[in-house]
Amino acid sequence: MTQSSAPAEELRTAMADQLVREGAIRSKQVEAAFRTVPRHEFAPEAPLVQAYAAHEAVPTKKNEHGITTSSVSAPDVQAMMLEQAEAQAGMRVGEIGSGGYNAALMAEIVGPAGSVVTVDIDPDVAGRARELLDATGYHGVRVVLADAEHGLPDTGTVDRWIVTVGAWDIPPAWTDQLAEDGRLVVPLRMRGLTRSVAFDRDGDRLVSRSSEVCGFVTMQGEGEHNARLLLIRGKEIGLRFDDGWPADPDALNGVFDTDRVEKWTGVTVAPAEPLKGMQMWLASALDGFCLMAVDPELDTGLVAPQNKRANITLLDGDSLAYLAIRRTADGAEFGVHGYGPNAEAVADTLVEELRKWDRDHRQDEPVIYAYPASTPEADLPAGRVITKRHRRIVISWPHEGQASKGTIDEKEK
Ligand SMILES: C[S@@+](CC[C@H](N)C(=O)[O-])C[C@H]1O[C@@H](n2cnc3c(N)ncnc32)[C@H](O)[C@@H]1O
């Protein structure tokens, strides 16, 4: 379909204006890139309005189960990650996960003195990216077909990595190919929660500068790592574990046949207030942390979680408690629903940690560290330690004393 460029230009201007207004675009370089690159030419299958919708991704490939494996990511997420990266003119930038559009934005930002290389594991995606980049005049962007787990063949170091696919771990190649003062921006999954973390390199460790909520298609190839799902009540309710698979999953059979224990916390949130800090706090503080999902087609209404797709849940043996919410005059209040023989105690633990977040950490951002997996416990900063295949991730909260909050081994499954 031929699309006339006048409406595309208007829509592009409107999209950029909206991203600036909403604070996703903060710098002149990123703004100029969004005003320049013709996004619709990288998403020819989408109607113009969809191509320029500020919060919409355009899916470009699905697997045999109908699950999206590639897309042109949503503009607001791309802007957020480009701002986190703070790439400057003349830098060498590497992108993991291609599509063409984001690489073109990066090429605008680093300019002719810089360089952009993008790598994808899927030959269809890499081929399409090459074609679209050529068609739009971005001949200088290098497109490589490879599993990014092993970094970029025949390439030295880069000043910035932007990973545009959901990663569970940080392979050594990504730091080996990162300049001494370089930055890696990666959507990293920790205990089931994904955050786009901007990591600065500090010797052999990475230290976060910022972390933002995001969602991405998951990594394929050698670095693929799927969470495990425990289904209960037929398949109505699922519990998702990145780690901490229950010692006796059968102990949860019938847990929802017990009476519900309901507790309210007095902790309130304003409408549209972001909950990213609260979720990260609970993921750091609770040993039996997992995420609950309710199948919309099988939902009998028995459970009423705050979020039916990924709800914070605390598991302890044969009992569990999950996060609930109720409206108040000026917002909403968090509560907890507990089930099982030990419902009271599990619910109390979750209530206590919610109150602790409200009292001590509501204004805080955690610092996230990534150390080589061989780093001994004694050399790690205080915080929740998540041991993966290649790294030990530490989520560390300010004002939280010296004691470690505990260690979780995500790689042992
Ligand atoms: C969200 S898309 C990338 C979007 C793109 N950066 C854009 O311009 O909007 C994620 C891509 O990551 C790719 N991918 C998944 N696993 C990969 C791996 N191990 N190595 C390289 N690419 C991978 C997928 O094939 C998919 O095309």
Automatic annotation (TrEMBL):
<protein>
    <recommendedName>
        <fullName>Protein-L-isoaspartate O-methyltransferase</fullName>
        <ecNumber>2.1.1.77</ecNumber>
    </recommendedName>
</protein>
<dbReference type="GO" id="GO:0005737">
    <property type="term" value="C:cytoplasm"/>
</dbReference>
<comment type="similarity">
    <text>Belongs to the methyltransferase superfamily. L-isoaspartyl/D-aspartyl protein methyltransferase family.</text>
</comment>
<dbReference type="GO" id="GO:0032259">
    <property type="term" value="P:methylation"/>
</dbReference>
<keyword id="KW-0489">Methyltransferase</keyword>
<keyword id="KW-0963">Cytoplasm</keyword>
<dbReference type="InterPro" id="IPR029063">
    <property type="entry name" value="SAM-dependent_MTases_sf"/>
</dbReference>
<keyword id="KW-0614">Plasmid</keyword>
<dbReference type="GO" id="GO:0004719">
    <property type="term" value="F:protein-L-isoaspartate (D-aspartate) O-methyltransferase activity"/>
</dbReference>
<dbReference type="InterPro" id="IPR027573">
    <property type="entry name" value="Methyltran_FxLD"/>
</dbReference>
<dbReference type="InterPro" id="IPR000682">
    <property type="entry name" value="PCMT"/>
</dbReference>
<keyword id="KW-0808">Transferase</keyword>
<dbReference type="Pfam" id="PF01135">
    <property type="entry name" value="PCMT"/>
</dbReference>
<keyword id="KW-0949">S-adenosyl-L-methionine</keyword>
